[in-house]
Amino acid sequence: MSMTYMDPRVFLILEMVLEEDTNTLEQFSNVLGVSTRTIRNYINQINRELKGGIAKIVKNEKGTYSIRIEDESKLIEIVNFNRGKLSNFINLNSPDERINYVLDILTMTNNPITIDDLAEEICIGRTTLIKDLKKADRILAEYDLELKRKPNIGMILVGEEMDIRLLILDRLYENYIDVLENVNQINLVKDYDIEYLRDELKKLFKKEELYITEQVLRDVERYIIMSVLRNLNGYKFEKIDKRFEVIRCSDEYTLGLKLKALLEKIFNIVLNEKETIFLTMPLIGRKAPSTKLALSSIKINDSVKEVVDEVTSFLLETSGIDFKEDKKLIENLEYHLYFALNRMRFNIRVKNPLLQEIKERYTFPYSVAKIAAMIIEEKFDLKICDHEIGYIALHFGSYFEKNSRKVLNVNRVAVVCGTGLGTAQLIRIKIGKILGESVEVNTFSDIEAKANLDLLKYYDLVFTTVDFKTDLDVPIFRVNALFNEESIKKEIENAILLKNSINLKSIKKIEKNIPFIGKLIEEDKFFILNKSTFMENLEDMLEKLVHKGIIDIEFKKKVLKREKKSSTALDNYIALPHSVNTNGENLYLAFGILEKPVIWDTKEIRIIILMIIPDKNVDSTDLIIKSYEEVLEVGRDKKMVEELAKVKSFDEFYKIITKRR
């Protein structure tokens, strides 16, 4: 028996009369939000669908409606069929869900479809659908696809088969089950075929010594099922863009040939040679393996090594951080890009489930990854999406995590206690939790410490429950027995960074209880700027610093050249230009408050924070990283930035930025 879908609103009436026989026209009207006249039309439509001895909705003497069932099995079949369809509409109030549903329909037909027909299918208004289609046009453009419209005929999806498949795989279907169910072809591929396919894939990969993850296996399955279904429905590769032809030269292509032979055998179909390229794509675009054994068989090509070298060289020049010293980081970046570049070349999209968390928690690594992406895009003429940038950021994040552990490399700690053994012991335990149990902790009474202050100079840190004055160059922390461990850990990191920094004289290290960034702020590097454009304000700021002898002309030129090449505008009204100051020994921050907001790279800028990075201090990496992180933390505090943007003097500025955050 042939069945057609019912409009979800029409089907809801059928569901209601099946559940109870006490509904009136008014009750139907209230539930569906339409007139009673429309309800009568819906009931007539249902009865037309159920004619031929299946069932009929009738009006009772009391004005209520019930259903007379003649063929229960056929009615159940119709109900289940429409319930399945109705599940597709559960989230169709969301524009994204509606757009995906529209794309699903368009990718599975060669026939034009009108806006009115599509609006009726999705149960939305024509105006809403037209808005959705404008968004769909932008999505399709990302895949080199186009929605061609012909008056009085309808619209049809136009583009290469490869791009249509990539759209389907990326936006519509997370796994092969989605592929089967959403295209309403669950019966074309049997469960036992899928199970057999999976077993054979595992055997094949093991035989070929290809180390894969469960995710790679799922991706290969998706590509195989997509290949089978598209071919069974007559959507075959007639031609293929030349950029995909290079896949034939890859090591994985030989395995792609074996995948093609395998699915031809299992599904009893014949595929053309171009399908091999498609089936190879999930292999060349997979994520880098995580085991040494799996990595050992991969040969990194020269172009990947070159771009990693270019990225790290540029970062050293502009940020002062020498990533090249970390050989493991370089190796991991090379392996990552070996596969990531294939994904970018062939428009294979990946979703990064950690992306938002990376942006929020790994702000600085993400910023570094964006710079790396800019260089990669320029070298290979590619576009890198946020999800890929997020994965690159994880590698830089690992580098910074290792560096932060180095900062807390403390061997000896003194505890000065004016109360008693219990307090001293509790402080010792809490110090052990922060710095590790291997740290040597010695306890002194306040009387001992004050009488022999020279004893304390042999310690890396001093914790004290009492106040005392000393000129010793040792970080001293005033605490009580119940101090906040996270807060003290941050203060320790800051203190050690400042202690190890070459520019101790220029830093307000004696000031307590202020954020780290407050220790780097000086009045001679604070400016109120009143030019009309961003570049004019930046140049004015740089010129004043040159005049004060803080930077030279070459530094000014480097910053301006870098800014013209790639904007340093951040969110929340801040720009962060930065570069290495040749022959510079000190790290400086300079602040420029714009009297009038300006637009730069489509973003509104109110504050310029200039980082002047030394190239002579080889031990300044930790300090540079910490400074970047502090500036970015200020940038995340929109309320503080708005307050800072209104200041008229250095004192106002310093008071706001050194508030405890």
Structural commentary:
This is Transcription antiterminator. This protein is an alpha/beta fold and 661 residues long. The protein has five domains: 8-87, Winged helix-like DNA-binding domain superfamily/Winged helix DNA-binding domain (Arc Repressor Mutant, subunit A, Orthogonal Bundle); 181-286, Orthogonal Bundle (PTS-regulatory domain, PRD); 302-406, Orthogonal Bundle (PTS-regulatory domain, PRD), CATH 1.10.1790.10; 412-500, Response regulator (Rossmann fold, 3-Layer(aba) Sandwich), CATH 3.40.50.2300; 518-657, Mannitol-specific EII, Chain A. It has helices at 8-19, 25-32, 36-49, 72-87, 95-107, 115-122, 126-142, 161-172, 176-182, 191-207, 214-232, 253-267, 274-284, 292-295, 302-319, 327-345, 355-361, 363-380, 386-407, 421-435, 446-451, 485-500, 534-547, 553-565, 621-636, 638-644, 650-657, and strands at 55-59, 65-69, 146-150, 154-158, 412-417, 440-445, 461-464, 476-478, 526-529, 574-575, 578-581, 588-600, 603-614. Strands 9, 10, 11, 12 and 13 form a five-stranded mixed β-sheet that branches. α12 packs across α13 (274-284) and α23 runs antiparallel to α24 (553-565). Residues 180-184 and 502-510 have low confidence and may be disordered.
How would you summarize the topology of this molecule?
Layout: H1 8-19, H2 25-32, H3 36-49, E1 55-59, E2 65-69, H4 72-87, H5 95-107, H6 115-122, H7 126-142, E3 146-150, E4 154-158, H8 161-172, H9 176-182, H10 191-207, H11 214-232, H12 253-267, H13 274-284, H14 292-295, H15 302-319, H16 327-345, H17 355-361, H18 363-380, H19 386-407, E5 412-417, H20 421-435, E6 440-445, H21 446-451, E7 461-464, E8 476-478, H22 485-500, E9 526-529, H23 534-547, H24 553-565, E10 574-575, E11 578-581, E12 588-600, E13 603-614, H25 621-636, H26 638-644, H27 650-657
Parallel strand pairs: 5-6, 5-7, 7-8, 9-12, 10-13, 11-13
Antiparallel strand pairs: 1-2, 3-4, 12-13
Helix pairs in contact: 1-3, 2-3, 5-7, 5-8, 10-12, 11-13, 12-13, 15-16, 15-18, 16-19, 18-19, 23-24
